[in-house]
Specification:
Blueprint: H1 2-5, H2 14-29, H3 36-42, E1 43-47, E2 50-56, E3 59-65, E4 70-74, E5 109-112, E6 118-121, H4 145-160, H5 163-173
Antiparallel strand pairs: 1-4, 2-3, 5-6
């Protein structure tokens, strides 16, 4: 998802993680694997820049922060048959939430180059570069069987479940859709 929208983990707001979690849960709980193309069909990325004036080298300059400035929202202009899991998320976060944003220690991967020199790389480290997210990604016209199943699951979710329902199910089942090493999920 990050590569598809050209964003890094630190660009996303807490609401973006909630949207991704609800989407993944919706797919899994209705019997399908989450599919990036299905997500792109119904969601877009909104950039919400945070600007602040700072003094640098004795001059006041406006700085745009990259941390916590992007979130996923339902695509606009979806037409009459618009599909959307109803909102159940915080539209405004406490003013100081960015100061409590998480940081994760990343470990290096060491390898030996062809010339015999040891090389260390940090593949999970965030790169500070110009932020240029893809706000709208259109999936390919060809629909794979995985995407077709995910589309059906998402349509069923939108018909029968709201955002609050999905969050309650996630918490009650103790199954965190974006978590690592989740137990096997069985639909009953």
């Amino acid at each position: 998802m990050l590569e598809t929208f050209n964003v890094q983990l630190h660009h996303l707001t807490p609401t973006a993680f909630l949207t991704l979690s609800k989407f993944c849960w919706a797919c899994v709980s209705y019997g399908a694997e989450p599919d990036v193309d299905t997500f792109c069909m119904y969601y877009e990325l909104q950039k919400q820049p945070k600007r602040k004036k700072e003094v640098r080298d004795g001059k006041e300059v406006e700085v745009t922060y990259q941390y916590g400035s992007c979130t996923f929202m339902s695509k606009r202009n979806q037409g009459v048959d618009r599909l959307e899991i109803s909102f159940c998320q915080n539209g405004k976060w406490d003013r100081g939430w960015l100061e409590q944003w998480f940081y994760v220690k990343t470990y290096g991967v060491r390898s030996i180059a062809e010339d015999g020199e040891e090389v260390s790389e940090y593949p999970l480290t965030s790169r500070m570069e110009e932020m240029a997210p893809h706000t709208r990604v259109d999936p390919p016209e060809e629909v794979s069987p995985t995407r077709e199943a995910c589309d059906r699951a998402f349509v069923a979710t939108c018909r029968y479940s709201g955002g609050r329902d999905l969050v309650e199910e996630i918490m009650a089942s103790n199954y965190w859709p974006l978590g690592k090493n989740n137990p096997a999920f069985q639909l009953e």
